[in-house]
Hints:
The protein has four domains: 7-151, Rossmann fold (3-Layer(aba) Sandwich); 176-268, Beta-Lactamase; 276-471 and 536-548, Phosphatase 2c, domain 1, CATH 3.60.40.10; 553-698, Heat Shock Protein 90. Helices cover 35% and strands 25% of the residues. It contains 16 helices and 27 strands. A six-stranded antiparallel β-sheet has the order 11-12-22-21-17-18, with helices on one face. Strands 13, 14, 15, 16, 19 and 20 form a six-stranded mixed β-sheet that branches.
Amino acid sequence: MQKMNRRILIADDDKAQLHLFRKILTPSQPLNSNALSDDHDPFELYLFNDGKPLVDFFKKESESGKRVPLCILDMQMSMDGLETAKALRAIDPEVFIIIITSYEGVFHKDLLNALKKEVYFLKKPIQKEEFLALVTSLLISRNNQQALHAAYEKLNLAHEKIRENEAYLKAIMSAIQTSVMIIDPEDFKIMDANPYTMEMLQCGKEDLIGRDMYEFRAGDQSVCDLNSRVVSNEYALRTRKDDIVYVRRSVKETRVRKKSYLVQSLLDITDIRRFMKKQEISIELAKYLLRMINGISSRHTCLANRLNLFFDAIYFPCFKEGGDHYFVRTLDFRNGKRKTMISLKDQSGHEVGCILRSIITDLTHHAILNNEPELPLGEIITILNHTIYTSGIFNANDFFTSVDVVIDHQSLEMEYVSAGHPRFFLIRGTEISGLPEHGGQGRNLPIPVLADMRYSAGRCRLQSGDKLIFYSDGLNDLSKMKKKDSFTYAMLKASVLEIIRRNPAISVSRLMSVLLDTVSQGSDIDKLSASQDALPDDITMLGLEIEDETDEYEKVLKADTLADLNQSISDLHLQFFKELKQREFEISDLGIHSVMAESIINAWIHGNHRDPDKSITVQWRYGNDFHLAVHDQGQGFDYQQISDPRTEENIVKGSGRGIYIIRRFADDVQWDKDGRTINITIKSCYDDMEKTEQRRKKKLIRLW
């Protein structure tokens, strides 16, 4: 707090009067008042025997910035009180003046007219209490005036600064060649916008301010959830002239004077989108070629001793032209041996050339496997590295990491080679191993770094129930979507360990899904496919599990009537559905009932011809997928000769409808050679788009 100004100048040619002023204004005890300040500092007195030296001192102090709030003048001096007061007011019009006079108030009006501002008069002899009260009051008033004046000056400076800032901000906003909007976070009304926004949306400011920002969205785009107050995505806007503008949108919350605002910037990417549209056919064609080269990845592969190799994949590309690619392939040896190879590669980059390098890489890889399938895995990868290095297709900064494994169907021996790729997990019971181990066989440099690099392979023998999880480093970086550090290998391993200890019987397919949710740490993983550009890198996870096909259940049914059969079907349906729900299968009640009922009724009617002495054997197994087999004792049939029930000529016929319903809800349907057994597979999570794509590529059963 600023100290009170107590300076008082007194002029009187009577020394006795000056002594009296000093005595009154310098009390022996502190004033019994806190009017001036809490510390009761004494008055600061300056005494003069005439008006002229007082005026000279006053002028000097004023020029140095040391203002004097109060002057006390005697009327009868060489330079009388009136002349002294006029000189003081000429220097500082705000100074308070008390004139001590022996005359009556007849001169007061003349003095006031001469000084133009109020002057205070005290008649001799002065009264101590009256004098002290007036001096104290005037000092307080003068100090308050000065404080108020200083506050006004400060406020004026602040207003001037605001005006300068507003002009600066207006100039900057006008120069920015990107749309900027200020939006109310409560109702999403546009509160302000820069000139470029009006130009981009082809409207005036009056057509923009106060409107809901989503009124400009084009088509059926969903309203973006801004509750997180941080959004980055692509959006399509419709201008006032009905043109479509594509933008990359960023929205972030800010607070000014305890009020929230959303600041939205829109970068016009219409030209980029048009260019990408022209290139889209080439990109899709390249991706289609890569899919054709690698073919369909078999979800189930039969191994020896009634074991089954299950395979599943989760894939989210960072861009349409992502760098991750994989294939699963069964190798047939001349001695009758069979092995399955799994290869996961992560190409550097994400542009169109990345897909072309992926095509060359996998074409070369398949060619080596076709020519020398029986070579050890380390030799195969060594040849792949040398061929890619010497091809001249990869630039100096181009490379890929990979992990390749080969599993022997008979012995379950697994060879593995990692070329700079993250370690994969081998899960056995509740124990986890990371392969290749540090310093162990199978750990190598990326491809192609050195032309003559020899790639080593590690080995281990798998067992029934073993699970394998392979992944690209995009999984480690997924947590960056929430501005967090990458998930390290140790963190991934700890997460997997926690999951399997909670549920030791969890399938590898379910395990991958739970792990992905854990790593994403709240990122909306279900929406990644719709906004892939938000991903920091491609995400690929491959899961393998050695399943025991003998771990199955069986029930033999016989029925005299359809009503009896329906009762058996109902009992089985309740048993199936309860067990599938416990295993977290996302299967509809209608779907599982339709598949089971149609397959059993078909076996009873078309297979056994309603013969009550013939049985229907139902076998089922719960694994990563639900497997259902229905056997009848009939003569069999040629399932490929059944007509399509959806055509106009067959729409009213009964033939084929049951099989159509089965195929509608099941993920895979196959018959044995004589048509007496139908084998049905239902995935744990229904994906109609994936099922359509699988059938389009697979074409193993040409049935509609």
